[in-house]
Amino acid sequence: xxxxxxxxxxxxxxxxxxxxxxxxxxxxxxxxxxxxxxxxxxxxxxxxxxxxxxxxxxxxxxxxxxxxxxxxxxxxxxxxxxxxxxxxxxxxxxxxxxxxxxxxxxxxxxxxxxxxxxxxxxxxxxxxxxxxxxxxxxxxxxxxxxxxxxxxxxxxxxxxxxxxxxxxxxxxxxxxxxxxxxxxxxxxxxxxxxxxxxxxxxxxxxxxxxxxxxxxxxxxxxxxxxxxxxxxxxxxxxxxxxxxxxxxxxxxxxxxxxxxxxxxxxxxxxxxxxxxxxxxxxxxxxxxxxxxxxxxxxxxxxxxxxxxxxxxxxxxxxxx
Length: 320
Known about the structure:
The chain is of the alpha/beta class and 320 residues long. It folds into two domains: 4-216, Rossmann fold, CATH 3.40.50; 247-318. It is 51% helix and 14% strand. It has 13 helices and eight strands. The protein has helices spanning 4-18, 35-42, 57-68, 87-97, 110-117, 128-139, 144-149, 154-172, 200-227, 236-239, 247-265, 270-277, 287-299; strands at 27-31, 50-54, 73-77, 102-108, 176-183, 189-197, 267-269, 316-318. It has a four-stranded mixed β-sheet. A two-stranded parallel sheet has the order 1-2. It has a two-stranded antiparallel ribbon with strand order 7-8. Helix 4 links the parallel strand 3 and strand 4 (102-108). The protein is globular, with a radius of gyration of 22 Å. It starts with a helix and ends with a strand. The relative contact order is 0.07.
């Protein structure tokens, strides 16, 4: 299956061939280990659209920053673990964001972070200081150690470690960072996808993309399961996956959050309402859910509006 570098190169080639845009999409790839394989996979693509660099993101960052100059740039950081995306490198991107459009998508492997953090109390082990230092460099602070020492269950530790990292990203970029869990077919957390942007509309759009990808994946998984022969599970209780929340329940929960925000502001446009909740509901709710939730509040007379239809981006909603 094609990986993200090949998919991005194909998109760049398609845009260039269509000739309908005033801009070009250029792909710059870093690969420290499988560089030869990367170059082979990219060989069919025009060298003006694709550039491959050997090494980690941090090692090649000065060169990358010169290449992209002030052009709008999306940095996709997807390392094995987290080597090469230390806070020193992230800070350089944050500085760039003050003068040029800069967005990030980060694969935050919180499982590895949590495992490596286990060395924190491995007293007398020669490897421990290196692991602790690596995590300090990743976060840029040692606040992660408080989470590890707190004795929280693993799932809660994962959430708090991710929230700490996301909050630091949002502050550094003077924007917002939203996160989305990527899970195995059995529902176990693999990693978080983090999106960093200076504009809430960007957060809304990325949330919409991830929502559609997730639902396409779920539909494909259901088709595959339906086509496969059924076998008796040895431990069925371990293979059970929590059912997806039905849409009516999701809309009801969203309506309560909308009303809470609306009561504070008294009135909001439909667009501003989505902006206000885009991080909390990142990739979980999209525009049609917000519209249905508002219609529900209108029926409940908690939004003062004559009709349920015609709710658009600039529609003003008054809360009572």
